[in-house]
Amino acid sequence: MSEIADRINAVHRELGKKRIPAGEGTTVLLRRGYAAPIEDVWDACTDPERLARWFLPVTGDLRLGGSYQLKGNARGEILHCEPPRLLRVTWVFGENTTDKDISEVELRLAPGEDGETILELEHAAVVPAEFWKKFGPGATGVGWDGGLLGLDHHLRGEDLDPATWHDRPEAREFNTLSAQAWGAAHAASGADPAEVAAATAATTEFYAPAGDAPQ
């Protein structure tokens, strides 16, 4: 088994439902352990200097009730913060948004065995039916898988370069396996097998286009 496959298999993925202010949301949940103390994992997830090294640069009024902006990506408000165990924020992508476009991301940390930290990340969103039918949970899940991979490398002291990672063959393998893993989670939720197969194929093509495959 490749190292990339090991990293994919280190994550538990599941789907669910959660009521958020925007309405009845669909959730994608990722859970995995990190060989690092809970305080270190929390710091890596909340300190702007460290976040920029494995995720994205962040600016804003970074406190409870404040707001944040991820460079070239989402923005939102900080709804709940209980160091070092719980962080919940709104997640807004794009400029012309409505209330239905405001999703929520919750990060939960808990101590595990032998000094390990268990991380759970849950993203709840009201997803348009046509978008969900086309891509399924992988549209959101593959991106978060990449984030958890970056955190894993960061905590090991071997940061991935976000600017070059997506051009590497390993990134293509990772995104392909991630899309398949979210397809399995989609199937486990009771979705129609044909819909799962089509959504997994569409997600794979989006994150690992066939035209980008090595010749």
Walk me through what this model shows.
This is SRPBCC family protein. Pfam families: AHSA1. Residues 35-144 form the Activator of Hsp90 ATPase homologue 1/2-like C-terminal domain. InterPro entries: ASHA1/2-like_C (IPR013538), START-like_dom_sf (IPR023393). It comes from Streptomyces millisiae. This protein is α+β, with helices and mostly antiparallel strands. It has a single domain, classed as START domain (Alpha-D-Glucose-1,6-Bisphosphate, Chain A, domain 4, 2-Layer Sandwich). 40% of the residues lie in helices and 28% in strands. The protein is built from 8 helices and 8 strands, in the order αββααββββββααααα. The chain has helices at 3-9, 38-46, 48-54, 129-135, 138-155, 162-165, 169-188, 193-207, and strands at residues 12-20, 23-34, 58-60, 67-70, 75-82, 86-91, 103-111, 117-125. An 8-stranded antiparallel β-sheet has the order 1-2-8-7-6-5-4-3. A hairpin with a 3-residue loop joins strand 5 (75-82) and strand 6. Helix 4 (129-135) packs across helix 8 (193-207).
